[in-house]
Design brief:
This is Zinc-dependent peptidase. The chain is built from ten helices and six strands, in the order H-H-H-E-H-E-E-E-E-E-H-H-H-H-H-H. By secondary structure, it is of the alpha/beta class. The chain folds into two domains: 144 residues, Glucose-regulated metallo-peptidase M90, N-terminal domain (Cyclin A, domain 1); 86 residues, Collagenase (Catalytic Domain) (3-Layer(aba) Sandwich).
């Protein structure tokens, strides 16, 4: 192939590549500009009461995010689960809470949400410190995979949406993992808005993580689920649940941690 043709093709590819963000932004703007369906409003009213407590501007922002999220992400039913608008809207509403007031990249690594009717079983394999291989099964309500999938129990997603103040929400938990995984593997250090924020983020979350580990070892009651003591990635997901569902208590008992999450999520849920 002549050099001129190769050069032209390379130039065209570069123009296409550079134009992708522009055309994606235009496409998303067109989707968000469409009226929010009345049937979807009814689903939010019945299934996601959390939304009613939010300021009007955030409710509007959330609805636009829901429209784009549903347009871009595939929902797949597993083990007989039927995917309806009720499933899509209920899950999307909770997932999009984490996008409010932030650059809305819509979980760029995520392609599919797999939905089971209830808890599902995942096989596990690990090797212990002695080099012995073990296999087993975990029963889960949700899981976030780095290769483009989130798996959810519909029953748990419904219960998490219905009870807005218990600090437990499987959709928020798994989509916090998705934010964390934007940097690669989940490690409790998602992408922050400014480089200089990382030092304080690491110091505050590490101190709180170690405090939860200590409390868990002593069998003490804490605001945070003991599962958050297993590793930093789970700690970030667990405290994200509490940030959205029990913000007043978190701000009182863990003010530095609340401040870090409020800065990251660009929200102050205790004011709603």
């Amino acid at each position: 192939m002549p050099l001129l043709v190769l050069t032209l093709l390379a130039a065209l590819f570069a123009v296409w590549l550079l134009g992708q963000p522009y055309w994606l932004a235009r496409k998303r703007a067109a989707i968000a500009a469409q009226p929010f369906p009345d049937a979807w409003r009814d689903i939010l009213r019945r299934r996601v009461p959390y939304v009613r407590a939010m300021p009007a501007d955030l409710q509007l922002q959330l609805k636009k995010h829901i429209q784009v999220f549903i347009a871009e992400k595939a929902f797949l039913g597993c083990a007989g689960q039927v995917i309806t608008d009720e499933v899509r809207v209920t899950i999307a509403a909770q997932a999009c809470l984490l996008l409010l007031n932030r650059p809305a990249h819509y979980y760029p690594g995520l392609r599919q949400i797999l939905v089971y009717p209830g808890s599902f079983v995942v096989p596990r394999a690990h090797t212990d410190s002695a080099g012995v291989a073990h296999s087993g099964r975990d029963v889960l309500a949700g899981e976030s995979w780095a290769h483009g999938q989130v798996v959810l129990s519909w029953q748990d997603a419904l219960e998490g949406a219905a009870t807005v103040d218990d600090g437990r929400n499987v959709v928020i938990h798994e989509f916090a993992h998705q934010l964390d995984q934007e940097t690669g593997s989940a490690n409790g250090a998602p992408v922050l808005s400014r480089t200089e924020h990382y030092a304080r983020w690491a110091a505050v979350l590490q101190a709180e993580f170690e405090a939860l580990q200590h409390s868990t070892e002593q069998h003490e009651e804490t605001l945070f689920d003991a599962y958050g003591a297993t590793e930093p990635a789970e700690f970030f997901a667990v405290v994200s649940e509490v940030f959205f569902e029990q913000p007043q208590r978190m701000a009182t008992e863990h003010p530095a941690l609340y401040q870090e999450l409020a800065q990251f999520y660009r929200l102050d849920p205790q004011s709603w």
